[in-house]
Amino acid sequence: MKLIGGSGCMLLDCDEQLFITYRQSGENGAEKLLSKWAEAEVTPHEDPKILGTALSPQLFLVNKEAAMNIAFSTARKYWGRVSTELQLFFNKHGLDTKYVNDRLNAFFYTQKGKQAFFEQLFAQHTMDLERLVWLVFGKRWQVKLPENDLKTIYLYKFEDDYFVHMIYKEEALFWHWLFMKKVYSLLIHKPLEQFTFIHEIMGHFEQSSTITYAHVDNSVYNYRKNLDKCITYVDKCNLSCLAKKQLRLYQIVTHYRLSEGQYQCIKELITSFEADWRYSMYALTEKEKVLIAYILLHIAHQESDYENVLHYGEYLLEDERLNNYAIEILLEYKDLLPNRKPTPPAIIKNYNLNYLENLYAVLLDTYVRLERYQEGLVLLKEHGLASNKKINAALVQQNYSNEQLIAIEASMQQDIALQVNNSLQHIGLSVEEWRQHYRQPDAPYFLVAQSASMHMINILKILFVTEQFELFEKLIEVYKKYLLVEEHFNQLRVFISAYV
After folding, report:
1. Of 57, 84, 104, which is closest to residue 147 (Cα–Cα)?
2. To the nearest whole percent, how much of the chain has pLDDT over 70?
3. Does the global pTM surpass 0.85?
4. CB 181 within 8 A of CB 52
5. End-to-end distance of the chain based on CA atoms, in angstroms?
6. What is the side-by-side strand order in the sheet with 150-158?
7. pLDDT at 41 over 90
């Protein structure tokens, strides 16, 4: 272990040499140094050079004691004392200097604090200032904390060895590049069965890649291409194990997230994945089947393959499969499912922002397109999120009293007030502001209005065909009053004229 510069950073020898070379000669110079090291190895590793030259893991893996010393001493150096900017932040939120320093000292200079630090770091594989402040002070702030010279600490375990890596503010691109290089090297040289955290390490790998190559044209395409090459190589070199399956799943999810409408490749990856793992001792779990069904549902929707939309959508709804596994999927693939909190009382909302609300909207739209109106009515009756609580109650109870219909309109007015001002005070003023602006593309709630209008039109079509005329008449009245989008309403006119 060495100290470099005047900063007092604890660095491995390889990190120090690469850091100095990178500062002097950039990425190309660092790559030449890596090639020189590789040529000097007594027993050289096979290296496909997908992401340049790999490092020997022996250069950067350390034992548990060394990893803990590096991580904790670095955290204490950068986060154990409060910068002027951070103290101003704490003062603004009612925490004086003495209290802050006392809490930090109690954390960084006691066994209890050290234990809490490592419990969190071993569980999450990452530590940053925001997470540390939560550990020390027991609260999270909704505003961004001032930037610190130490951005992130990563820690991963490989059997008896540990991979610890820091991202510093100074020369951050180098530290992200080096993190990528080390993860790539581990994938190439270490048995996959030693990876017990594929989702986390690949997520961090992708994040560092995005930052490192943000300036490069086609960086997303290049990431997908290099990822495929790397996984093909690793797949060939490793026996069947859980991490191997998880790496293939990460590949599928990554292609889906970054696909930009190119879905054929994803479908081919899924077909190959299912064939390879169907009869393995690591056969697909119910959660993994749900994950794949969710991806195929949305591909089918984008491709207007409505029969498959129903096939996968109904599978996800049956036994509440999507709802039951959504949290686990979100923990592993946080960007896959839109995760805004669902709002059962609301009909006016953007149905693209929550995975369940979006599922109902997609299914309802598909029932209408396939003229399966009775099934659409059943969906509305059996699932409150397919419309809202008031509409669902009216349908289920067949209660079309004047009071119930007034309650539906009142709930829509409340939806509007929350969209406009996030408050139920001055509902009338909020409704008036909404009606003046919701059709304007630059209005903050324009997309909400568009999404809610299209969904309401689908509900109206189902109610009309299934002869729920009392509710239809009330809903069309409030639709025209609060949500009218001419293009959508003209579609409804044409639809109704075809049935009359």
Report:
1. 84
2. 98
3. yes
4. yes
5. 82
6. 126-128, 150-158, 161-168
7. no
